[in-house]
Amino acid sequence: MNAKCKFCGNNFDKKYKTQKFCSLICANRSNLNNKNYVILPKRHTKELAELFGILLGDGSVNKYFVKVYLNRIADAEYVTFVEKLLRKLFPGALATSQDRPKRGTAEIQLSSKNVCDYLKKLGFNGKKRKIPTWIENDIKFAKATVRGLFDTEGSVGVKYFKGKGGSYIYKQLTVTNKNENILKFLEKYLTILGHTPTKNSKKNIYLSNKISIDKYLKEIGSSNPKIIKKIRG
Were both Cys, which of 6, 21, 167, 208 would link to 27 (CB 3.0–4.6 Å)? Predict the structure, then answer.
């Protein structure tokens, strides 16, 4: 689908229907020149809380850009979800993704100083990665944040256990993160939500056995097709 770049005027082929710029460079320059009016959320929502989980897991917020880094192959479908979530939460902001083959990542970027200031005001701190009180104080927001964290930092593996009754094979849902604030939050709210997480290292939280994992998928859910497929597969 051919279109004309709103910033430089060059013709380009659209990757998605609402694409306005031919490249990240033009998108960024347009935003920094204050050519975009961004609508910010007026209240806390589950979608906003899920975005916080995504950012706490694999994101960053600096002066002008919000970025999320995902696996370019395993998370290919999830990249689309995150882009759509950003556009839904912040109409008018420029959300784009770029493939980074050498790094093995897909880089999602939203360009808006207003959005960056807004997220920081709501409590996002890339260094401390402490969960904001508005999330901690509302169980539905906490649940959405847990989902965002598992979707970015989670993995599904197969474990083998040999006991007196024989050998057993079971699946294990794991979140790996070195940040103590994130691990404590996950352990606390998974327990509140009726799960039995285990933590036998300084960087991992586990949900083991089919019943526990099925309960997680049913009650908390996942927006990442990779996680859903591995749990059900």
Answer: 21
d(CA 50, CA 82) in angstroms, rounded, equals 10
Q: Tell me which H or E stretch contains 154.
A: strand 154-163
What is the per-residue DSSP string for 98-150? EEETTTTEEEEEEE-HHHHHHHHHTT--TTT-PPPHHHHT-HHHHHHHHHHHH
pLDDT tens-digit map of 99-117 = 999 999 999 999 999 999 9
Buried b (16+ CB within 10 A) or exposed e, 25-53: ebbbebbeeeebebebbeebeeebbbbbb
pLDDT band, very low/low/confident/very high, at 34 (cuts 50, 70, 90): very low
- What is the sign, positive or negative, of the torsion defined by CA atoms of 135, 141, 142, 147? negative
pTM of the model: 0.82
> Can you list the domains of the chain with their CATH numbers?
46-128 (3.10.28.10), 152-225 (3.10.28.10)
Query: From the DSSP assignment, how many helices (H) and strands (E) are in the chain?
Result: 9, 9
